[in-house]
Amino acid sequence: MTALRQHLHAHPELGYAEWQTSALIASSLEQWGYQVERGLAGTGIVATLKQGDGSKVLGLRADMDALPIQEEADRPHASRQPGVMHACGHDGHCAALLAAARLLAAPDSFNGTLRLIFQPAEECQQSGAKAMLEQGLFQRFPCDAIFALHNWPGIPVGQFGLLAGPLMASTDTVHIRIHGHGGHGAMPHQAVDPILVGAALTLALQSIVARNVDPLDVAVVTVGAVHAGSLSSVIPDLLDMALTVRALRPQVRELLLERIRQLTLQQAASFGASAEITVDPCHFPVLVNDAEHTAFARQVVLDWLGEQGLYASVKAQTGSEDFAFMLQHCPGCYLLLGNGPLEGGCMLHNPAYDFNDQALPYAAEYWQRLAMAYLR
């Protein structure tokens, strides 16, 4: 497992371009007796193995893609692809699920149908999960339940975090363009300054979470990019802003988007400017774990490791995850895998991050135990 994980880490591939990763996974599964369907959403894989009557169907999913980040760490298995690295641990997710697949390929391991879904492009705004669904994932390969996990720095190795209900936030990207009237920086009274409008709007947007959202709800409105002008003495015509918007309830998401629209239009008008608001059609919904399947996933941990195997402080996250799309179509659970303490390490999406290989046996054996428990 460690050798495979480190090989994948050294050869990362971006979303929808996981050709070598996909080929390695597919060839391994075929050798172990799985029926492998390649090409769903380009590089996606669905591998099926039936034992016994094959009636009950379980899906397990792992993501394959890396991030456009330059790795900043001196390790033997560091990325050999400039500007690309596995900064989120998808290399570990693939290695663990492959190890479990090999164990479960032994005769009489279970009674039912096991589907292993290796998904491309989880990190892309053009979600790989959504693309697989649009290409008929659950119509062609139906599942009774589906599960996935993600490594999580800060949770001790050997522990799992489980939470029923909302676990990961919805995410939207909002683009705002302020139309002013350019002019000379020395004569601002003859212009309508979009930079002034943008500055005022940035402050006003922070009032949405502070004053429009119930304090017991979770919401985030972050202005992540502002672009305008090129010379100190010139007031530009335009200012562009980009926002990320997060929520843990669909109703809160709708409120945030509506208030952003209202504030933007009215704030611009108050300065004599105008504005355009565009919400990217690609967005991730709230990831909601089904209560029954979360309880089942928790019981697998308890039967194996006892209470010490459960991370007691798990809570909903404002990060997002496109497995949410799959959970909208099939009940299941998304759980967190302990990747070790943050002290001396770093969080996901950091250029120095690395998956903790000590977590691999826990992830692989968990998948084996969960499959054998579900497909008795």
Notes on the structure:
It is a single chain. The chain is an alpha+beta fold and 376 residues long. The protein folds into 2 domains: 2-167 and 286-374, Zn peptidases (Aminopeptidase, 3-Layer(aba) Sandwich); 170-279, Alpha-Beta Plaits (2-Layer Sandwich), CATH 3.30.70.360. The protein is 33% helix and 24% strand. It is built from 10 helices and 15 strands. It is elongated and about 80 Å long. The chain starts with a helix and ends with a helix. The model has no long low-confidence stretch (mean pLDDT 97).
Strand content: 15-25%
CATH superfamily of the largest domain: Zn peptidases
Query: SS-based structural class?
Result: alpha+beta
For the report, how would you describe the main beta sheet? 7 strands, mixed
- Our count of helices gives 10
CATH topological fold name of the largest domain: Aminopeptidase
Instruction: Give me the strand/helix succession.
Output: HHEEEHEHHEEEEEHEEEHEEHHEH
Radius of gyration: 23 Å
Organism: Aquitalea aquatica
Keywords: Hydrolase, Manganese, Metal-binding
GO molecular function: metal ion binding; N-acetyldiaminopimelate deacetylase activity
Binding site for Mn(2+): 88, 90, 123, 150, 349
Quick take:
It contains ten helices and 15 strands.
List keywords for this structure.
33% helix, hydrolase, 376 residues, metal-binding, Aminopeptidase, Peptidase_M20_dimer, alpha+beta, Amidohydrolase, N-acetyldiaminopimelate deacetylase activity, 2 domains
